[in-house]
Amino acid sequence: MNVFKTLRDKFPPVPALGALPVGVGVFLLIRLLEGTIQGPMAVNVVIEEAAKFALFVIATLAAGSTAWSKFIFNEQTDPDRKEGVFLLFPLLCAVVFGITENILYFLSFPTSSIYKRLLYSYPIHLNTALLYALAFLSKRIPKMGLYFLIGVLYHLGLNHLSLRLPEAGIYSAGILNLGVFFLLYWRTRIKLIERSIQACWNPR
Amino acid sequence: MVRREIELTLHYFLRRYLRIRLVNRLIAYALLNLAAYMSLLTVMILADTSLVVFHLLFFCSLSLLPLFLFLGMEQTTLSRIIRAVDEHCLIESYLQTASAEHRSFMQSRVESLLARKKSGRVFPFRMFAANFYLIGLCLLGFVLLQGVSFITLRDFTTAFSAQKIKTKLLERSSFQDRIDELPVEELPAADSASPEEESATPGGEIIEQRAARNIDDEALEELLGEDTMVAKDRIERLSPEDLRQEAESNAEQNETSWGFQVPDSESDSDPENPRGLPGNKGQEAAGEGSGAEAGSSDVGRTYKESPLREYTTVQEQLAARGNEQLSPTGNLVEGREQTYLEALFADFVSPTSQRITFNPLFDTIRERYLELLNERF
To answer: How many domains are there within chain A?
Structure first.
């Protein structure tokens, strides 16, 4: 029993397992939408980022809902953990989104470009998702809007850059992208801890 | 120490704690991918899976980095970390209380505790227990991969490159196809496992000779498979007695005198003419393809003997048979019929004519030139 309890505490099953179908579903929905609109690259980028942003909005709304909290958490759950778990769900959805996109690319063009995408394109989705996570941790709407704009520009800029960069440049930019990913990840973790510090300094 | 300083000290502990966890997560990620890579290579060697499947699965494994970082992230709250450094719940009590009076009472104790912890090693680096299991898994995968690679590919070095493994597997399959395409003449009763095996075949082959032929077949495969050292070792293990026995069995059957015979179908010589050394009568029977075999193991026309074996066993052959089979022929006319010998020893004929020709015009010019020279000097 203790083993299962530990596993449940470490890997909350609902966000982890729910992210898989939701991530794939969102990706397919976006592809359908993009195929219908047939717009330029900028439109596609806005659609993709808006979908990811919407996932964070839904997760935040669900975190405020008592019914959803009871569905996901048990009674003994530390209140400080709820926020982290709810942010985990859209983050995992973005991960599944990126993996699905890369797999479909590889199945269409089975070349070594998949590793290029692993360094360059995949972190774009992860970085924008982490950017939105930071925005939603701040709980300030202007900051959310600003971060959404930054996410769209970042995604669009790197997409355009990928068309102009040489092969070596793409790998270099990919390594830079991974660096940004680790910085954002670190910042998110510290932010989560700081919030729990605040909860301790100002006990309810 | 004021409240702000206490908060900063806690931040320091938090960052250290998170750094150690992050390093451990990255180690786990690297180990898992290494294990996955070796597992996929092992499966590729065993099942000959395609490179697309290999790269797809390995890519999926590499893509799991965010899961290693994100999962478990939410459990790291301040209370857990503080409890790891807190003695008698002093810091937690200090942080939890809303009373300023209580805080001032506990402040000096908290300050001394934090100062003591900061000077010491609060969160020393320790590997996750799961990482030790993953290291074991990697070692197991490595041993398995090398074992499978050595058994299947006979090579340790190519086992870490999927491309090289695939190339090697393709070479092996193409070699196998070439071996299958070699012309094989089925001998009558060759496959029968009846008591007739004890008797001689229509070609005069007995069961011991067939066993010897199988050994030679293996030697050929090893040679074509670039395992020349193995084949050479096998050849060198043959004792002069073995060769003498072969010679005796050949003599009994009145077969060819040479132990190794190029099959008729693959030779350039005319089947009407005897091959090999002049005066070799037994080769006529070998060229007919009627089940009469030539060669040390009486394998007939379908066997192409290895030149390496022929070369390495010349001395033994000579020692076993004496030199009576190498005596020159007395029939000189027979040798002259061979056109390639004539071509080889004939006079060299130059393809271009080297005759000096005299042109009257050149003579006239030369004479005039000399006259002018005389006039001048």
So the answer is: 1
pLDDT tens-digit series, residues B172-197: 777 777 777 776 655 555 454 444 44
Q: Which of B128, B137, B157, B172 is nearest to B38 (CA)?
A: B137
Whether the full predicted model's pTM is greater than 0.90, yes or no, is no
List the domain range (segments joined by +) for residue A145. 2-201
Residue B164 Cα, gap to closest chain A Cα (Å)? 16
CA distance B115 to B61: 44
Query: Which residues in chain B touch residue A84, judged by CB atoms under 8 angstroms apart?
Result: 73-75
DSSP state of B302: G
**Scanning every residue of chain A, which has its alpha carbon at the shortest distance from the alpha carbon of B60?**
A99
CA distance B63 to chain A (A): 7
Instruction: Dump pLDDT digits (tens) for B328-371.
Output: 666 665 555 566 666 667 766 555 555 556 677 888 888 888 88
Could you give the ipTM of this predicted complex? 0.84
Decide: helix, strand or coil at residue B259.
coil
To test the contact with chain A by mutation, choose from B15, B70, B93 the residue with the greatest count of A C-beta atoms within 10 A, namely B70
Q: Tens digits of per-residue pLDDT, B125-150? A: 888 888 899 999 999 999 998 888 88
Half-sphere exposure (CA, 13 Å, Cβ side) for B305? 26
Residues of B in contact with A9 (CB under 8 A): 75
CA-CA distance, B141 to B53, in Å (whole number)?
Answer: 19
CB pairs under 8 A between A and B: 101
In this complex, do B18 and A11 lie within 8 Å of one another by their Cβ atoms? no
